[in-house]
Design a protein that fits this description.
Number of strands: 5
Strand content: 5-15%
Radius of gyration: 15 Å
CATH topology: Rossmann fold
CATH architecture: 3-Layer(aba) Sandwich
Helix content: 40-55%
Strand order of the largest sheet: 2-1-3-4-5
Number of helices: 7
CATH superfamily: Response regulator
Order of helices and strands: HHEHEHEHEHEH
């Protein structure tokens, strides 16, 4: 069990007995996704740890449309098909770090909120630079308590809804 998993033992138990979380099919097209000023927020979570993805889905499935994937290459495919409002990514993953991934997509998805998750204290200086440069909107240190994670995504949701409202008033 990794550190993030240890923080969510109460959430994992239902998963182990076969209750699968309801999530959005990542193969839907942009036209079929519930999004827009009245729709749910669409979140993409990228992590090479399947248990972390399941925990994330379990926490947020009722409030948001959740898309998950194990690699940044799959994340790019989802971004090409879906209107994603928030991208959350683990930092340390095979082939590409979360920060490298965010840098590579920032020009194309500049209005998408980006949240970096990491369990490595040694990256905090690195993360401070990413926050200061605007590469990421927020970061979450793992293991994370559920309430802290929920508050971070609620703040992001509030910003998105405020932007949607402002845009609809124009």
């Amino acid at each position: 069990m990794n550190n993030l998993t240890q923080s969510y033992t109460g959430i994992i138990t239902p998963l182990l007995v076969g209750n699968k979380p309801n999530t959005v099919d990542a193969n839907k097209t942009k036209n079929n996704t519930d999004t827009g000023s009245q729709g749910k927020i669409n979140i993409l979570y990228v992590d090479d740890d399947e248990i972390s993805l399941l925990i994330f889905k379990t926490i947020f499935k009722d409030k948001y449309n959740i898309f998950t994937c194990l690699t940044t290459s799959k994340a790019r495919e989802i971004l090409d098909k879906e209107n994603i409002d928030i991208i959350a990514s683990d930092h340390y993953m095979p082939h590409e770090t979360g920060r490298e991934f965010f840098k590579s997509i920032s020009a194309r998805y500049k209005d998408t909120i980006k949240i970096l998750l990491t369990s490595h204290a040694s990256t905090l200086g690195y993360i401070s630079k990413a926050l200061a440069s605007g590469e990421i909107w927020a970061h979450v240190v793992k293991p994370v308590e559920g309430e802290e994670l929920i508050k971070t995504f609620q703040k992001a949701e509030n910003l998105i809804l405020s932007q949607r409202k402002h845009t609809s008033l124009k």
